[in-house]
Amino acid sequence: MANMKRSLGIGLWFMFLTLPLMVVRVNTINQEIEWRWSNMIWVGICAFAIAWLWQFSINRRANQRAHVAADAHPEVEKLSFAQRLADDPVLSKRVLLVAAAAAVVFPWLVSTGQNFYHVNVMVSALIFVVLGLGLNITVGLAGLLDLGYIAFFAVGAYTYALLSKNFDLGFWTCLPLGGLMGMLFGIVLGFPILRLRGDYLAIVTLGFASITKIVLENWDTVFGGAAGIANIPRPEFFGMALDGRQKSVYTYYIVLALVALTILVTNRLKNSRIGRAWMALREDEIACVAMGVDMARTKLSAYALGAFWAGLVGVIFAAHNNFINPDSFTFMDSAMILAMVVLGGMGSILGVIIAALALKLLPEYLRAFAEYRMLVFGGVMVLMMIFRPQGLINNMRRKYECDTVEGNHDGEK
Amino acid sequence: MMAKSNGKKLLEVSGLTMDFGGLRAVDSVGLDIFEGEIVALIGPNGAGKTTFFNCVTGIYEPTAGEVLIHPPGGTSKRINGMKPNSITTLGMARTFQNIRLFPAMTVLENVMIGRHCRTSTTILDAILSSRKAAREEKETIDKSYRLLEKVGLANEADEFSRNLSYGAQRRLEIARAMATDPFLLLLDEPAAGMNPQETHDLDELIVRIRKEDKLAILLIEHDMKLVMSISDRIYVMEYGKEIAQGTPREIKENPRVIEAYLGEEAHA
Description:
The complex is a heterodimer of chains A (about 425) and B (about 270). Chain A contains 17 helices and two strands. Chain A has helices spanning about 1-15, 20-25, 35-70, 80-85, 90-110, 115-140, 150-165, 170-190, 200-220, 220-225, 245-270, 275-285, 285-290, 295-320, 330-345, 350-365, 375-385; strands spanning about 25, 30-35. By secondary structure, chain A is an all-alpha fold. Chain B is about 40% helix and about 25% strand. Chain B contains eleven helices and ten strands. In chain B, the strands form two sheets. Chain B has a six-stranded mixed sheet with strand order 6-7-8-3-9-10, sandwiched between helices. Chain B has a four-stranded antiparallel sheet with strand order 2-1-4-5, with helices on one face. In chain B, α3 packs across α5, α3 (about 105-115) runs parallel beside α6 and α5 (about 130-150) crosses α6.
C-alpha cells in the first residue's frame, strides 16, 4: 500500500514536471497555444507503472536477501543455473556441444547468396568476445583495472597493417607477431605500474591508451595519421581467390577458432597455479605476497597475457575491415570492453561471452529504434548494475576432487 | 634469561629499528628463536609488536638492525629488505592480526595459494595441461586438504572463505600459512576476537602443530592465559622498546612488566 502511495506521488510529480514539455505547445503558425492534456495522462500512467514496478523489484530483492541471511545453511542457498552447469560435467559438455554446433553452422543459416550482413556483424561481435576474454584475465582474474585495453588491440592491428604494407608479410605470419607485439607492450606498460593499484592504475592505463592514439594520429609518416591505413589484405586461404561472402565466412571461422582457443586457454589458466595466484592478487595483495606469491611476476604475466589476446585479435580486425585508422581505438571501446567484463561477472568466462555478444549485437539489431537504441542500452546497463552488481554470472564455486587417506571427507563433526 | 640450549637457532634479530618519519615505532629490539620453541611477543597496544612482525616478514624494510634466518638444513641468510614472498619461500610464514583471507575463493583454494611457492607449474605447463601440471595440481589439492583436516575445516573445503565464522577464518589463516612448508610460523594475535572455547581449541592446535610438524612458533597475543600456558619464552615490548624477556614465570614476576601492564599506582 505504501508502495502504491509512493508510486502515485511519483506519477503526479512527473505529470507536473513534464507539463511544459509534453502538454503545452506553441503553435507558431496559428499563433495560439495548444494544450495536449491527453499526454499528461499518459505520462502519469507510465510514471506510476514504472515507479510501482521499481519499488516492487527493490522490495523483492530486499526480501530475498533477508531470506538468504536468515537460513545460514549454504546447502539451502539456491544454486544458479550457471553453478549447476559447472557442477555437472555431463550437462556442461552437452550445452557446450550444442553451442559449438550452433556457432559452426551459423554462417550457413543466416547468409544466403551475397547477403552476408549477419556474418559480418557476428565477426565484429566475436572479435569483442576475444577482447572481453582477454581483458577478463587482467581485470576479472587479476583485478588490475585497465582502462586502456584498446591500445593493445591497436598495436595488433597496426602490426599487421604495417607489416603487410611495408614488408608484404601474410596474414598467418602476422597473426602470432601481432599477439607477441601486444604482449610486449603489455610488459612495457606493466613494469612502471607494478606498484600502483586501483584508481591510480586506471589513470595510468587511460593515459597509455591516449598516448597510443595520439602517436598513431600524429606520426603520419609511419602510421598514416588520421587517414589510417587502407587496402589491408584479407586472410589468405591457400592462395585461392575468395568472393566477398566466402571471405567473410572464412574470417568468421578464423575468429571462431580464436574464440575457442581463448576459452580453452583462459579456462586452463584460471584453474591452475597461475590463475589462483591472479585471483589471490585480486582479493588481497598483501596477503598474497606474504603467502609467497611473486607479485611482480604475477602482475606482469596477467598484463602480458591479457594484451596478447588483444594483439592477436587486432590482426584479425585489421584484416576483416581492410582499413584501420585511430578512430577505431577510442576510449569508448576500452570502456565497452570493460563493461563486458563487469556486466558478465568478473572472472567468469561464460558471463563475459554472453555480455560481449549482448553488448555488440543488441545495438546492432536495435538499429530499428534509431535514436532510442543508445537510450535503451544505457537504461539496461543502469538496471543491470542495480539489480545484479556482481554481473550476470558470478559466485562460481569450483569443487576439487581429492582422495583422502583417512577417507573422512564427510565424516567427523 | 638464556634460552634453552638444546636447539639450533632459527631466527636471530638484533638491534631492529623502524622509523616512520620522526616516529620510532620499534627501537633496537633483539629476539632469538630456537628450534621447536613457542615464543610469545607481548606488550600493550601500540607497543610496536605488529610493526616488528612486519619488519621481520618483509612487509616493511627496517631502518636499522639485522634479521638473520638459519633454516634447518640450509644456509643462513640476512633477510632485511627482502621481498615478503622471498622470505616466505625461505621458510617463514605468517598470519595477520586483521584476518586477510581471499574472501571470494573457496577455503581449499585459500590453502592452495600457500602451496604456490612450493610448486613450479609455468604458464605454458598450465596452457598445455602438461603431465607435470596435473601432478602438481593433484599434490597441491591433497596437501591442502590434509591441512584443512588438521585445523578441522575439511567439511567446509568448498565453501567461500568469507562465509566462515570468525574462529574458523583464523584457523584457515594458520592452515594457509602452514601450506608454505615453513620452519617458523609467525602468528599475529591468533586469538583476537575468539570466545573462550575457540581460544582453548586454538591453544591445542598450536601445541599440536609444534609437536607434529616440528615447527617453531612466534606469536603476538593479548590473551595472557593462552600466552602463559603455551609459551616457552616471552618477550615484552613497550613504546617500541624491549623491556623484558624470560620464561612465563619470570615475566609474571617482573616489576617492569607489571608496571607496563597495570600502571605504576597499581604496582605500588
